Amino acid sequence: MKRKLLCKLLVLNTLSCSAPAEDRYTQQSQETDVLREFATHYSKGEWASIQALYADSAKIYNNQREKYQTPQEDVDEMAAFASNFSSCGFVQESIETEMVQTDKGEIWVNFWAVWEGTIASNGEKLEMPVHLTAQFVKGKIVKEHAYYNTSEIIEAMVAISVMQTDTTKTP
Fold first, then answer.
1. Are 72 and 58 in contact (CB under 8 A)?
2. Is 50 left (phi over 0), alpha (psi -120 to 50) or beta?
C-alpha cells in the first residue's frame, strides 16, 4: 500500500514539475510589432527609421534566394521606388503578422499586406500584395525574404515613359 501511494506521489510530482508547453506561435509579440512599425515607417517615407529595424549585417532577399541586399541598399531602393508615387504605403487593415519559433529556436515573423500607390505623373492607383518573412535575433531583423509582383507597376511606368517619349518627338 505504501509502495502504491509512493508511486502515485512520484508520478504527481513529476507531472507537476514538468515545464509548461512552449508557445511557438503568436500574432502578438515584440517582433510582430517591428514589422507593423516597418509598414508605418514605409507609408510615411521614414527611411532611416526602417533601416534602424535591421541588424547592420542583415541580408535582405527581394524576390530571389541567392543575391541579397544590405539594409542601406534596400532602403535606398525603396526610397527611389517610392519617389515615383504621390503617395504609397501599406493598407493598414490588410496587415497580418504571425511569429513562429522553429524547432531550431529561430524566431521568424511572417507579414502579409496590400501595398497601394498613386503614380505621381498621372494619378493612376495601383495595388500589390506583399509577403515578407523575417528572422529576428535580439529584436533586430537579421534576414528577410520579400515576395511581391511588380509587373503591373512596371507596365504602368513603361506606358508613361512611352507616352512621354511620343510627345517629345517632333514630326
1. no
2. alpha
Burial class of residue 94 (count of CB atoms within 10 Å of its CB; 0-12, 13-18, 19+): middle
d(CA 13, CA 7): 10
Q: From start to end of 24-123, where are the E strands?
A: 25-26, 54-62, 85-90, 96-101, 107-119
**CA 107, CA 25: separation in Å to the nearest integer?**
10
Dist CA 171 CA 152 (whole Å)? 31
160 pLDDT tier (thresholds 50, 70, 90): confident
Residue type, 112: W
Q: Could you tell me the three cell numbers for 153?
A: 507597376
Q: pLDDT value at position 20?
A: 46
